[in-house]
Design brief:
About 15% of the residues lie in helices and about 45% in strands. It is built from three helices and 14 strands. Strands 1, 2, 5, 6 and 9 form a five-stranded antiparallel beta sheet that branches. Strands 13-12-11-10-14 form a five-stranded antiparallel beta sheet, with no helix packed on it. A hairpin with a 3-residue loop joins β11 (about 130-135) and β12.
Length: about 160
Amino acid sequence: MSDLKWYLIQSKPGQAQRAAQELTNQGYEVFLPTLTTEKLKTGKRVEQIEPLFPGYVFIELSELNSNWRPIRSTRGVARLVSFGNAPAVVPYDVVELLREKARNQTVQVSLEANKPVNITEGPFKHLNAIFVEYDGEQRAFLLLELLGKWQRLSLPLTHIKSV
């Protein structure tokens, strides 16, 4: 039976990706869950990939067989998260669930004005609407036909998809 367990490394500020890359280069199994977000920069929508847990990287180690010494001196690494004198063990199921979600993550395509969309959540679930424009970073204005009239509403981007 394998004695591999997942642990948590705290990176130096803004260096989680660097820490993950350096640890990978040294032969460690690491996992840095990321999230694709859309931000407004100079008035334009830009997709960015950001860590799901800023400042933290998961690392898989064996208590008996892994060399723990180089971890502390790795570029980007601040410390191994510990409680007392023992490193904090992250439940294997939690990391596997996060890895599964990362494998299945789909990037939402940009929505075009006056194109149909489908509402996937909320009280208008399964209804089609027309995308009008973005409403900030996380929402969209839609036109929805209700009772013979077009109604303008704002919904989270996570509640709609292109048809």
